[in-house]
């Protein structure tokens, strides 16, 4: 069974995302995906297959929700700024510049209903921004997320109401680029 992973940072330490916002997001919303996934596993282990289509659709939804939230929370707790090293070099190579990458990512964030993911795509060994409206709809098979920006209202509404742009700014002010760089280094070999 899966367990809720603890935050790796002090919830009071984020720059622009409140302790209340991040704690509710982590302890209630993310924990709900973990619990939902575990419940489905239990049902399947009992051999209850009467509603297999619904179970399997919910399994992928909860599993992907769990996974993306874990990346999202791992990406937070830093001081913002810019990436460095191999990640910055790859962003410059694949997008022309860091600024071009961020401009595209911000455009994606303005259009997304659920997530914007920076992924390493194994098919061309390049970085791509992908818009994923639901956890398990819009994902690209063969691409591994290295950064996840949660754009569902539950991620920002307590702090910013409908002003998603201020939340995105807060996300960038609290991003832990070292974590994103480490995730990228696992794939860029």
Could you list some keywords that capture this structure?
globular, 189 residues, minor pseudopilin epsh fold, single chain, mainly alpha
Brief description of this entry?
Helices cover 53% and strands 12% of the residues. It is mainly alpha-helical.
Helical proportion, percent range = 40-55%
User: Low-confidence segments, ≥5 residues, pLDDT <50?
Assistant: none
Give me the CATH fold name: minor pseudopilin epsh fold
Number of domains: 1
Number of strands: 3
**Which second-level CATH architecture applies?**
3-Layer(bab) Sandwich
CATH homolog superfamily: Iron/manganese superoxide dismutase, C-terminal domain
Please characterize this protein's 3D structure.
The protein is mainly α and 189 residues long. The protein has a single domain, classed as minor pseudopilin epsh fold, CATH 3.55.40.20. 53% of the residues lie in helices and 12% in strands. The chain has a three-stranded antiparallel β-sheet. Strand 1 and strand 2 (126-132) form a beta hairpin. Helix 1 runs antiparallel to helix 2 (52-74). The longest helix has 27 residues, at 19-45. The protein is globular, with a radius of gyration of 17 Å. The relative contact order is 0.17.
